[in-house]
Amino acid sequence: MIKRPPVSYFKIPVEIIKSGFYTDNYFLRTAEILKKDNYRPRVLMQVFQRERSVLCGVNEAIAILRTCAENPDRITIRALNDGDEIAPWETCMTIEGDLADFAHLETVYLGVLARQTRIATNVRRAVEAAGRKQVLFFSARYDTYHTQEQDGYAAMIGGIKDFSTDANGIAAGVKGLGTIPHALIAAYRGDTLAATEAFDRHIDENVSRIALVDFDNDCVNTSLAVARKLGAKLKGVRLDTSNYMVDKSIQSQMGLFPPTGVCKELVTAVRRALDTEGFTHVKIIVSGGFNAKKIAEFESLNVPVDTYAIGSSFFDGNINFTADVVLLDGKPCAKAGRTYLPNSRLELIE
C-alpha cells in the first residue's frame, strides 16, 4: 500500500476549480439553490464504480476536496487507498457534510478517479501477464500532455517503473527512457544502420543502445546488420511491425498462422537469427498493439520476448465512477436502485 502523499503534493488549480470552471453546471446550480434557500442538509455521498479494478486517483480526489471545498474542516472523508483492488459496486470513498460545501467538486473528483483507475487497472493486468518481464509505459503520445504526470503516477500504482517521458516518470523518481524513432531513421534516408551509428556516436554511453529494426519490414536482416556493426554495445532490438503488414522474413510461411504485425513467428525468427550468429546478449523488445491479453498469449506460448512496450491500450476501457447521496441527516435517502453500502476497508482521512 502506497503512503498517502500530502495535499501539497498535487498541483491543483484551486481557484479555477472553486470557480466551477470544470464543473457540470447542474452541480453548480445545486449549490446555489441550497445556499439561497438557506437549506443545509448533512448528507453522506457514496462513491463507487462497476468493474473489478485497481483503484487510483483517490488521493488526488481527497486533495481536491481538502483544498477546493467550502468549509473543508466540516467534511468527513473515508476512503480506500490508491492501488487497492476493488470489486464492482464496492464503496471506495464516502464524503459526509453539508452538500453545498462540496457539490461543485463532483465532476472533478469523479473524473480524476475514472482516468487514473482505468490506467492503473490496465497497467496492473499487463504487468501481471508479463510476469517478471519488463513492461514500458510508452503512452504519452496518445493523449494531451497536460495529463502526463497523473498518468505516470497511475501507471506507477499499477506496477510500471519505466516511462518514455520525464513527466510520466516524475512520481516514480525516474527519467524517461527511449532510443530511436522511425523519424530518425527516415532522416538518415531510411538507413537504420546509419541512424543507429549516429545514435551511438552522440548519445551518452550510459543510455542503452536499442535499435528499431522494422523500418524496411525486414526485422531479421536489419537486426543482424545492426548487431554485426555494434557488437557487444547493442543491448536490444525493438520490433514494431504494423498490424497491417507481414515482415519479409516470414512471408514464406503465410497461410499457416495470422502473420501480420509483431507475431510469435517473427519474434522467434529474430531470436533464432541473433543466437545463430552469437548475439545471445541482444534483448528483444516488442511494441505495437500489445495489451494484457496479447502479452498473456505470448507468455503462454513462450515467445522469446524480453520487454513489452505498450502505448494506447493503457487508456482502453470504460471504467467510470458514480457518486450518490445515500444518507440524509443520518437516515437512508437514495434514488431507487441505490442504497448505503458501508465498507469496513475505508479509512478515516484526518
Polypeptide structure, described:
The chain is of the alpha/beta class. It folds into two domains: 141 residues, nicotinate phosphoribosyltransferase; 138 residues, Aldolase class I (TIM Barrel). It contains twelve helices and 14 strands. Helix 9 packs parallel to helix 10 and helix 10 packs parallel to helix 11. The longest helix has 25 residues.
The strand line-up of the biggest sheet is 13-12-1-5-3-14
Tell me the fraction of residues in β-strands, as a range. 15-25%
Radius of gyration: 25 Å
Unreliable segments of 5+ consecutive residues: none
CATH homologous superfamily of the largest domain, by name? nicotinate phosphoribosyltransferase
Show the helix and strand layout.
Elements lengths: L13 H5 L6 H12 L5 E8 L3 E2 L3 H11 L7 E4 L5 E2 L6 E6 H4 L3 H25 L3 E4 L10 H11 L3 E2 L2 H4 L12 H6 L4 H11 L6 E4 L6 H12 L3 E6 L24 H13 L6 E5 L4 H9 L6 E4 L10 E8 L2 E2 L14 E2 L2
Parallel strand pairs: 6-7, 6-11, 8-9, 9-10, 10-11
Antiparallel strand pairs: 1-5, 1-12, 2-4, 3-5, 3-14, 12-13
Helix pairs in contact: 3-5, 5-6, 5-12, 9-10, 10-11
List keywords for this structure.
350 residues; alpha/beta; nicotinate phosphoribosyltransferase; TIM Barrel; 2 domains; six-stranded antiparallel beta sheet; six-stranded parallel beta sheet; 12 helices; 14 strands; 35% helix; 17% strand; elongated
Characterize this entry briefly:
The protein is of the alpha/beta class.
